[in-house]
Every structure is written in structure tokens, then in C-alpha cells.
Amino acid sequence: MASIVVRPDNGRLLVLFAYSPERVAKIKTVPGRLWHGPEKYWSVPNDLDMIARLSVLFEGDRVEHPGSPPASPRTTSAPPPRIRRSTRFCSRLSMVLAASSDWFQASYAPNAR
Question: If we measure between CA atoms, which residue out of 83, 77, 53 comes closest to residue 65?
């Protein structure tokens, strides 16, 4: 998933992304877009809903803009090792508690009647 950066500048929104023919074709569908050749970036009108429209237009790509959460540097979905250890601990603890509960019910449940 590639990143597209959108940031305000002089009443317009700058749209920065790595070149691909698909992205260029998509940005060309935006009314009022401008190509800034020497600087190699696109700009679009700073409308109220433009960031939402760009997010829909570039679906599948991450659209970063002021106010969006920063991109995560992690590329895998595995939890950090510390969380894995605590999950393992909780799993063991639940097994111990379940065994204790079984023992308690076997020992005291008949006497509870």
C-alpha cells in the first residue's frame, strides 16, 4: 500500500505521490487539478470535502494529511513480543484457574446441597 501525502499550501492542497500511470489517471479526474512540472507535484482546490474525495479516489493507498494518524512503521500484524508473553501468561493463568475451579466444584459442590 503506497502513501499519498496531502498538505495545504496557499489556499490549495498539494498532492504528492510516487509516479504511477494509474495514480496520474486518477488525479486527472479531479476538477481544478494543476500539475506543477518543475516541482513535480499536483495541487487540487482546497474544498471542504476534498480530502474525503481523494481518499475515495485513491482507495487502497494510504492518504496522509494533517490530522491523520501517523503511518505505522510496523509492516506485520504480529503483536510486539511483550504482548505475546503476557498473552501466554494469561493463557496459563486461565488454565490454572480452570483446574482450581474444577477441583473446588468437585470438593465442595456436593456439600453445598
Answer: 53
pLDDT in tens, 19-65: 999 999 999 999 999 999 999 999 999 988 999 999 999 998 888 98
SS3 of 35, please?
strand
Q: What is the CATH number of domain 3-64?
A: 3.40.1170
| Residue-range domain boundaries for the chain | 3-64, 81-112
For residue 102, report the phi and psi dihedrals to the nearest 5 degrees.
Answer: -60, -45
Give me the percent of the chain exceeding a pLDDT of 90: 43
Length of the chain, in residues: 113
